[in-house]
Amino acid sequence: MNFKLSQVPDRTSKPRQYGLTMVMDKGLSIRQVEDMLDISAPHIDIVKLGWATSFVTPNLKDKIAVYKSAGIPVYFGGTLFEAFVVRNQFEDYRRLIDEYQLEYAEVSDGSIEMPAEIKCDFIRVLAEQVKVLSEVGSKDETKIIPPYKWIQLMKAELEAGAWKVIGEARESGNVGLFRSSGEVRQGLVEEILTQVPNKDIIWEAPQKAQQVWFVKLIGANVNLGNIAPNEIIPLETIRLGLRGDTFANYLNDKTRKRWKLSK
Ligand SMILES: O=C(O)[C@H](CS(=O)(=O)O)OP(=O)(O)O
Predict the structure, then answer these.
(1) Mutation pick for ligand 1 pocket among 170, 172, 177 (CB with most ligand atoms within 8 Å)
(2) How many domains does the chain fold into?
(3) Which residue puts its alpha carbon closest to atom 3 of ligand 1?
(4) What is the separation of C-alpha 38 from the centre of its chain, rounded to a whole number of angstroms?
């Protein structure tokens, strides 16, 4: 940090197991990646090449190499996994992961119907090869999954070997964990947290108000995903209580009382 400031929460340090910021790259050029890393690398834990953008991104290997040289792991979006699976090309997908020397892979069923047991089988197989992030939730806004089902799926996928489970929200943040307005399905999140350890969950939270909500609920070291490249540094300030939205979060009672601040 550039300055000394008291009453700032401790952040976990890299390589983080929690307190993760997962960034969504949906087609940055190599130059843009270099620029992003130049300023934001300390605050990026993992990068997802959103949905199937990796299929059409030129110079993919070179781009992944830039992330690698900065020590930042990259993985393909779950939609690419689904695109291979529906075409009966799972083995090709596994080879692809090796060819691109990836250390993480996402297993999801956001765009397809996949029995939970089959999804867990894919997780089991891939977990032998890489660290698996499995995503729970549908991309279809009309498909409302009840909380008990989210919990069941998340637990089963972690047991099958997922390193983290991701709560679906899409790039837009208006499905899955959120209502179409972007408002958090609070009851859902709170119920999930009674059964699944928060360190095991990455919450997709692309909108500022959503990030603020999670930081207020869970704290500076909440795992957040689908963060846009230009929101990485702003998010870090939200985590640290250095933006208006979370400003009073970590101040002690004496300071809050003196300045008449409420959390
Ligand atoms: O679910 C996601 O976050 C993304 C992006 S979007 O749904 O296409 O907006 O898909 P994924 O395949 O998990 O990257």
Answers:
(1) 170
(2) 1
(3) 170
(4) 21
Among residues 122, 124, 125, 151, the alpha carbon closest in space to that of 136 is found at 151
**Helices marked H in the chain:** 30-40, 53-56, 60-69, 78-86, 90-99, 116-127, 147-159, 186-195, 208-218, 232-239, 253-258
Of 229, 249, 188, whose CA–CA distance to 37 is shortest?
Answer: 229
Range of the domain at 133: 19-257
**In sequence order, which ranges of 41-177 are alpha helices (DSSP H)?**
53-56, 60-69, 78-86, 90-99, 116-127, 147-159
Residue with tokens 């070997």: 161
Q: Could you tell me if residue 211 is inside a domain?
A: yes
Residue 3 belongs to a domain:
no
Distance CA 196, CA 151 (A): 7
**Pocket flag, ligand 1, residue 139 (CB < 6 Å):** yes
Task: Give me the percent of the chain exceeding a pLDDT of 70.
Answer: 100
Asked, for residue 149, whether it belongs to a domain, the answer is yes
pLDDT digit string, tens, across residues 77-106: 999 999 999 999 999 999 999 999 999 999
Q: Average model confidence (pLDDT) for the chain? A: 97
The confidence score (pLDDT) of residue 263 equals 83
Sole residue written with tokens 């992961």? 97
Establish how many alpha carbons lie within 13 A of residue 124's alpha carbon, considering only the half-sphere containing its beta carbon: 9
Whether 178 maps to a domain, the answer reads yes
Q: Which two tokens stand for residue 101?
A: 């020397």
CATH code for position 86: 3.20.20.70
pLDDT confidence of residue 238? 98
